[in-house]
Amino acid sequence: MVVRALLIGKNPVLESNLIQVLDEISSKFILDKIILDEALPSYEYFEKFDFIFFDDHSCKREWLKFHRKLKPVFLENNVAFFLVLGKTCGKEEIYIALEAGVENILFLPLDISSAINKLKNSQDKKKFFSFYNSKDYKLFFDNSSNPKMFVKRGIVERANHAFFKSANLLNEKSIIGKEFFKLFDFESHQSNSLNMQRFEHQLVKSVEFLNVRLRQNNELFHIRTISVSNRSSKFIAEIHPISKPQKESFKDLYLLTKENYQGHNNIGFSNDYEKLTKRERQVLDLSSKGLPLKEIAQSLGLSKRTVERHRANIMQKADAHNILEAILFFSDSEVRV
């Protein structure tokens, strides 16, 4: 594998040192050079590099504007940015760099051994990120029986065969290249709208959205989004079609979360409720109130394992993938508050 690096600045000694360092990292490497001026290359130019070294030995902070502008590109593509400071740069320069989010700082004259270790550490961090771009993962993604999408910067890059089948869609152009959060109606439910904002601002790594409609054909799904890494706006969306018709009562499904459930404890259940044993009804009722497994077990004087078994029976009788779908299945056509 060829390692690509970029040196920004004109420093023959540093260039020679970096060639020595890169030679220890990989038998095949390319070191490009540019001199910073007002006209920066396109963002795509910087995406291809594994390492970018910015020589600011004069401590003029020319790196700061560059880093601020290109930081999203570095994070998106896992490009390791290295700031190279001269020996005359003081602590203040280091503090500013750290506050700006620069993780890698090298000092002149370059310590070859230290630089090699820092580059190796950056490569180790990249292994997880690179997994999602590997041929093995793409093969798994495309052939998975679970509907999935791969989203980059909010745009759907790929969707697997299982998704198109479950969504009853034949035209890939109707999905690929579209904005993920506009393809589905996330805003019709308060909790989904809130979770969408939490996930978009990377406050959480994973979020579940319930009762989400695909705008193109009104098919209903439960969706789980999972960030590829802490620093990336790439994510995978697992999209599960809802097998049972949804009752109008659960257009306010967000009430099922524990925080929002206070004052909404009287959910009615349909005739299918008679399929359940007395204990299963108790477990279902407490589950519909948003109680976690541990609290249900304590309330009924049961072990957590027994409650799990009752939940499994409930889901089997509802032909549901999870307890929320089971609650949907057994609910009445109205929520009685």
UniProtKB/TrEMBL annotation:
<dbReference type="InterPro" id="IPR000792">
    <property type="entry name" value="Tscrpt_reg_LuxR_C"/>
</dbReference>
<feature type="domain" description="HTH luxR-type">
    <location>
        <begin position="269"/>
        <end position="334"/>
    </location>
</feature>
<protein>
    <submittedName>
        <fullName>LuxR family transcriptional regulator</fullName>
    </submittedName>
</protein>
<keyword id="KW-0805">Transcription regulation</keyword>
<keyword id="KW-0238">DNA-binding</keyword>
<dbReference type="Pfam" id="PF00196">
    <property type="entry name" value="GerE"/>
</dbReference>
<keyword id="KW-0804">Transcription</keyword>
<dbReference type="GO" id="GO:0006355">
    <property type="term" value="P:regulation of DNA-templated transcription"/>
</dbReference>
<dbReference type="InterPro" id="IPR036388">
    <property type="entry name" value="WH-like_DNA-bd_sf"/>
</dbReference>
<dbReference type="GO" id="GO:0003677">
    <property type="term" value="F:DNA binding"/>
</dbReference>
<dbReference type="InterPro" id="IPR016032">
    <property type="entry name" value="Sig_transdc_resp-reg_C-effctor"/>
</dbReference>
